[in-house]
Amino acid sequence: MRKLKENLLKSLIYLSAFFTVSMLVVIVGYIFIKGIGGVNLSFLTSDYSADGSGGILPMIVTTVYTVILSIAIATPIGILSAIYLQEYAKKGKVVNAIRFATESLAGIPSIIYGLFGGIFFVVVLNLKYSILSGALTVAIIILPVIIRTTEEALKTVPDGYREASLALGSTKFQTLYKVVLPSAIPGILLGVILSVGRVVGESAAILLTAGTVAQMPGGIFDSARNLTVHAYLLTKEKGDIASAASIGIVLIFIVLFLNTVAKFVAKKLNKANY
What is the CA radius of gyration of the chain? Predict the structure, then answer.
């Protein structure tokens, strides 16, 4: 009976893994089959035309702007907040309330953030429809992810590391900077990578804060559309599934590229700290 249960559990594990990999292959494969024919140098390097022809260079630039700005804003705030909660704050109701609020923020639909950003950043702060408004809104969306993953990464660092460092005469800040954070970098990096994927795939919040202008942005204060919004509008207004799939392929490679850069930077920082 015991062996039967073990075999059943093992079968369920293998089945789940097979199902997950199969779904990934089917989704990515479908996108590549539908869109690979439309991906070429002209598609990647030319401006979009109102008649539906042209390329997606303005949307690629807007997407990169949004990713860099939102990550640059949310990462330091999220990491510092997690450090405070894990290393400095006294355990109690206040800290538990902050953690609960953080977890609740992670579950709010992005359209709600978009409505907030459209009112606060676009109207109240008078940033208007712009890349900056979109990046600030998305930075709020990814903040809970960075805080929670950083906090969990800090928890995985053994207390013995901290105790040994303090015993050798290091201050709490030196221990944190030289011992704890370098050991937690892989986990922190995971949060950043997840956040990059969330930013690249965001559409509702960007639509309500950055606008839908399909032109090359002159700066972060210009209105523009990112790749996901462009793919949505092509599908909704023109039913152009092939072009949307081509954009999906470009999005996949952008995420892979940015994740590779993030890992490279983290590795360099890890070596520098040691």
Answer: 22
DSSP secondary structure letters along 192-261 = HHHHHHHHHH--HHHHHHT----S--SSTTS----HHHHHHHIIIII--HHHHHHHHHHHHHHHHHHHHH
For the chain, which residues make up each domain, given as ranges? Answer: 39-273
Per-residue pLDDT tens for 219-258? 889 999 888 988 888 888 777 788 888 888 888 888 888 7
Distance CA 261, CA 126 (A): 34
Mean pLDDT, residues 179-188 taken together: 84
Q: How many CA atoms does the CB half-sphere of 269 hold within 13 Å?
A: 17
- pLDDT at residue 7 tops 90: no
- The position carrying tokens 């990169």 is 64
Between CA 114 and CA 134 the distance in angstroms is: 8
| Confidence band for 142, pLDDT divided at 50, 70 and 90 | very high
Residue with tokens 């450090």: 83
In sequence order, the β-bridge partners of residue 230 are: none
- Convert the pLDDT of each residue in 45-72 to its tens digit: 888 877 666 788 899 999 989 999 999 9
Tokens representing 104 are 């609740």
CATH 1.10.3720.10 fits 39-273, yes or no: yes
- E-strand ranges in 34-153 read none
Strands (E), the chain: none
Q: How many residues does the chain have?
A: 274
